Structures are given as C-alpha cells and as structure tokens.
C-alpha cells in the first residue's frame, strides 16, 4: 500500500515539473512575439527586409568607399552607375560619323583605322573638292600620292632664289589661270634690260597658301655666262648657260606676268623638268635658243604652249604665250 502511494507521489511531481517546463516555453515565445509586434507598432513601419542599404561615398577615382556599418552584398552603387551612363551617352552623342570616299595612303593605315571612323584632313578635303564626282576617286588618290612625292623631290632639289627669298613683284598679272584648291603655281615674267631694247623672260614657281597667295618664290631662267657681254657674243657663238638669277632679275620690276596654278601632279612634272635641265645646263644662243625658248621648254611640262612664232622678240614673247594659251592678247600697247 505504501509503495502505491509513493508511486503516485512520484507521478504527481513529474507532472508538475513537465507542466512548469511547458509553461516556461509558452511564456518565452509569447514574450518574443509581443516584443516584435510592439516595436512594429511604435515605428508605424512594416517589418524590415533582410537587405540593408547604407550611404555610399564615391571619390574622384571612381572607387567605392564603404562605411563601417555592416552591409549586404546586394547593395547597388547607384552613383557610379548613373555617372557611367552619362559618360556613355556623351560618347555616343559626340562620336565621329563614318564618312565614305576617303582614300587611305596604304594598307597599313587602312588596317590601323579600320576600327574607327575615317577622318579627312583639311588637305584631303581640299583635294576632294577638285574631284567631286565618284568617277574621279582614282584621280583624287593619284593627286594625294603625287603630293607626297613632291615633298620628297622638292627637298632633294636645289632651288635658286633672290636674297631674302623674293624678287621685286610685278604691279599686276597681265593674265592668269587660277583654280581654287590648287596648291602650287608657275609664273612667267618679263623684265626690261637696262639701256638695251631687249628684255629677259624667266619663270617663278612654288607653293600657294590656302587663300591662293605664294608662300615661296623659286626662280629658273637661262642667261649667258658674262651677262650682257656674253649675250652679245652669243649672237655669233653659243655661250655656256647660267640658270640662277642676277641682280637685275631680283631688283627690276617685271613689266608683264602670266600665272597659272597647278595640281600636285602638274607641279611634280614641273620639278622633274627643272631637275633635268639642272643636270645638263643648255647653251645660250641669242637667236636659236635664248631665255624665251628656255622658259617655254620649262612651261611645256605643265601644258603651256609657246607662241605661234617662237622667234618673237623678248618684249613681245610673253604676250604671244598668253594669246596661245588664253586665246586673247592683253589690252594696251605692247612694250617696245
């Protein structure tokens, strides 16, 4: 009987302990839930997300400096994204548009520029204006190539000039053939010979500025050794020729001038002709081969025709050239 009572007492104690343990668990869960609900109701906010945001500072090097606060790996760098997006838009806005019809110098340049929009230089644009139709693209390429050869040829040649680089200029051009965009010129000039009823014809040549004004003045002419005395002897016997200007060529004002502008291809031909005569200077013969005939030989390299009568006296020869090439005689009385 005593054992039965002891067993009942043990069961009661066990039940009491179990009830106490369950009550503690229930009380703990209820307290945690009440705390959450209370905090939510105090701030009037919905339960917070597990992703936390934080201020982001961007320095000048576009590097993100994080604060000391814990942050999630999902935080977005909106400042950097917005700035990079603006840079991208600016690059698209100012991107060079692709152009057609640009001739590259060689295959290496073509490969180098193949990933970028081709850009024409001012010089190429000027040349392109001379060849506006599509059938002349090859002509434009030849002109560009001739321009490069001219630079090399010009640097290798010897050119004669007056002291200071310029002779006394003529008051006006009696005739001219000017084409906008041409970069070179050739000018045939005539001057008086002091105290003698003869003249002297010579050629000036060089580069032009974009506005069409000469940037330089090189001179080529044929005179006899001994000056005026040599010319007198040359009436009977050929005299060795001289190709450089003398004092009177630089100081006396020309009484007539005829200028034409030239393409790079034409100017190259002019330089080649001058280079050729310099390798073997022709002899001077007053009637058979004088300064007029020499000037016409040089000018023929660029298509300038001599007068119908190539034995015209020097003071009339240049006007015969103008008539043969431009189809008219300059107005006014010709010098005698």
Ordered list of secondary-structure elements with their pairings:
Elements: H1 2-43, E1 57-58, E2 64-65, H2 78-93, H3 107-113, H4 122-130, H5 137-156, E3 175-177, E4 184-193, E5 196-207, E6 218-220, E7 223-224, H6 227-233, E8 241-242, H7 247-251, E9 256-262, H8 264-279, H9 291-299, H10 314-326
Parallel strand pairs: 3-9
Antiparallel strand pairs: 1-2, 4-5, 4-9, 5-6, 7-8
Number of strands: 9
Task: Let me know the largest β-sheet.
Answer: 5 strands, mixed
Radius of gyration: 47 Å
Q: What order do the SSEs take from the amino end to the carboxyl end, as H and E? A: HEEHHHHEEEEEHEHEHHH
Which spans have pLDDT < 50 for at least 5 consecutive residues? 1-6, 21-77, 91-120, 131-135
- Please count the helical segments: 10
SSE class: alpha+beta
Spatial order of the strands forming the largest sheet:
3-9-4-5-6
Distance between the termini: 171 Å
Shape: globular
User: Which percent range fits the helix content?
Assistant: 40-55%
Percent of residues in beta strands: 5-15%
Mean pLDDT: 73
In brief:
The protein has 336 residues and is an alpha+beta fold. The protein has helices at 2-43, 78-93, 107-113, 122-130, 137-156, 227-233, 247-251, 264-279, 291-299, 314-326; strands at 57-58, 64-65, 175-177, 184-193, 196-207, 218-220, 223-224, 241-242, 256-262.
